[in-house]
Write a structure and sequence with these properties.
Layout (H helix, E strand, L loop, with lengths): L2 E5 L2 E4 L4 E8 L7 E7 L6 E6 L6 E3 L7 E6 L4 E6 L8 E8 L15 E2 L3 E6 L1
């Protein structure tokens, strides 16, 4: 079992920045692949960014590439999502997700992840 707790959401003006954090417990963090997803009202949950267990590989949705950065600190059992140049379209509940994959890589489909945080609201005003 892996427990995930997100923090760092809030209200920000367009063009601003936020950093989300997701703290994990229950399993050796370095063996866990991590990802961020988001869900806006009335829309399906969508992939945002992922990092392999080793941290050596990352992948981003096209809509956030160049603006968001996923990183992990294995010493702190924490994954981060640095969000810059925020837009109103980024408004959503952001979820941290975790899974143990045999290849220690990453996935972009939500159903591939076994563990989820409670979500944190990000609201970007225009």
């Amino acid at each position: 079992q892996v427990q995930l707790v997100e923090s760092g959401g809030g209200l920000v003006q367009a063009g601003g920045s936020l950093r989300l954090s997701c703290s994990a417990s229950g399993r050796t963090f370095s063996s866990i692949s991590m990802a961020w997803f988001r869900q806006a009202p009335g829309k399906e949950r969508e992939f945002v960014a992922a990092a392999s267990a080793s941290g050596g590989s990352t992948y981003y949705a096209g809509s956030v590439k160049g603006r968001f950065t996923i990183s992990r600190d294995d010493a702190k059992n924490t994954v981060y999502l640095q969000m810059n140049s925020l837009r109103p379209a980024d408004t959503a509940v952001y979820y941290c997700a975790a899974a143990v994959f045999f290849d220690l890589g990453y996935r972009i489909a939500a159903h591939e992840y076994d563990y989820w945080g409670q979500g944190t609201q990000v609201t970007v005003s225009s």
